[in-house]
Amino acid sequence: MDGTEASVSLTVGGAIARQHTTVTSQQLITQAEQMLEKSSLWGRSRFRMVEAGAPS
Length: 56
What we know:
By secondary structure, this protein is an alpha+beta fold. It has one domain (12-51). 32% of the residues lie in helices and 18% in strands. A two-stranded parallel sheet has the order 1-2. The radius of gyration is 15 Å and the shape is elongated.
């Protein structure tokens, strides 16, 4: 690089499905999207995870 500094911010949301959990792929995606939205609402550089099927 040419010595220019860059600032980066990352917000992550995710959902984990444990083995033997009855959850559809759509439910998993929906919960991950909800966690991403919650992380964004809390501010920059945040993350939020939830176990699929558990209340968020």
